[in-house]
Amino acid sequence: MRLGIDIGGTKTDAVAVDEVGGLAQRVRLVTGFGHAAVVETAVTAVARIGELTGLPAGGFSSIGIGIPGMVDSASGQVAHAVNLGVERLALGGELAGRLGVGVRIENDVKAAALGAFHVLGLGGTMAYLNLGTGMAAGIVVDGRLWRGATGIAGEIGHLPVDPAGALCGCGQRGCLETVASGSGIARQWRTDDPLPARALFAAAADGDREARAITARLAEGIAAAVRVLVLTVDVDTVVIGGGLSHLGDRLLCEVHEVLDGWAATSPFLASVALSRRVRLVPEGTPVAALGAALVGGADG
User: Fold this and answer.
1) Residues of the chain with pLDDT > 70: what percent?
2) Are 78 and 70 a contacting pair, CB within 8 Å?
3) How many Å apart are CA 241 and CA 227, to the nearest integer?
4) For the residues 274-287, what does the mean pLDDT come to?
5) What is d(CA 80, CA 151) in angstroms, rounded to the nearest whole number?
6) How far is Cα 109 from Cα 128, in angstroms, rounded to an integer?
7) Integer angstrom CA distances of residue 177 from 20, 68, 121, 228
8) Calpha distance 49→147 (Å, rounded)
């Protein structure tokens, strides 16, 4: 049995996966803030899953963790996980010392990509387009992650598309992330609703002109990300996941409309069938934690 943990900015998801890849146990807990608290969160998650399965840490065939930030999967080092209050942390080493077993660390989006690939039973090449607070993609080729030369493959949220656009957290202007992400929505649509994207789409459905303009920019930004992934890597499938994916078919229909509009005016884009390659991650499936479980073993 494998153990996978997805450490998010506010919540941590932990799962036990059986020998055929099925979800055996799952727990959720609040993520601590800061270096020591993040380590403690992971240790607690292992203990909670251990209680449910009756296995000690050493009883799992592998343990994998997905976490935001720049991750060196070989050394287990995590850097610049800003939402967790982590600047630099030897998470793999810290956990090995606490648990007495080796732990594999991976970027959370890359882990989710691997999880989505297996959950959907895909083959060939897939890009997992994560639309959360930011935008990033994870790429899977024949069941294995493709990280690139330095591990930043898929960071398409920081591709500038508007030189006069909003300043991005990366220091550039007009990045895809500034319009096609949760933070992009929050910047443009002020609301007290704890789910700004939900409030935005509700207002757009009621005919609010500003809301409709923002949703149009959102759909165009996501469609542009799909186009980049297909034209650069020629992936068979682009799976949309992350917090914004909870908008479901409302979001997917908007993106399809943009892609189909481009195809109607460009024989070239029509020939690559962008719209037919896009799908949503299954609602409620903990793909990041499942992927972390797979990352922990040989499949990663």
Assistant:
1) 99
2) yes
3) 16
4) 94
5) 14
6) 8
7) 37, 16, 29, 14
8) 29
C-alpha to C-alpha distances, 217 to 113, 116, 134, 220, 224, nearest whole angstrom: 25, 26, 15, 5, 10
Dump pLDDT digits (tens) for 259-269.
Answer: 999 999 999 99
DSSP H helices in the chain: 35-53, 91-99, 108-119, 182-188, 196-205, 209-233, 249-265, 267-272, 287-295
Give me the pLDDT at residue 21, please.
81
pLDDT digits (tens, 9 = 90+) for 47-96: 999 999 999 999 999 999 999 988 998 899 999 888 899 999 999 999 99
> Closest by alpha carbon to 262, among 274, 251, 248?
274
- The helix (H) or strand (E) run that includes residue 63 is strand 62-67
pLDDT score, position 10: 86
Q: 193 vs 189, 190, 207, 247, CA distance in Å? A: 10, 9, 18, 15
User: Distance between CA 127 and CA 136 in Å, rounded?
Assistant: 10
Residue 216 has pLDDT above 50, yes or no: yes
79: tokens are 């850097």
Instruction: Give 210's contacts (C-beta < 8 A, 6+ positions apart).
Output: 189, 203
Nearest CA to 187 out of 208, 156, 165 is that of 165
Q: pLDDT, tens digit, for every residue of 7-19? A: 998 899 999 999 8
Q: What is the dihedral of CA 77, 80, 84, 86, to 10 degrees?
A: 60
Q: Which domains does the chain have, with CATH numbers?
A: 2-112+285-295 (3.30.420.40), 123-280 (3.30.420.40)
Pairwise CA distance, residues 109 & 132, whole Å: 10
Q: What CA–CA distance (Å, rounded) separates 251 from 214?
A: 12
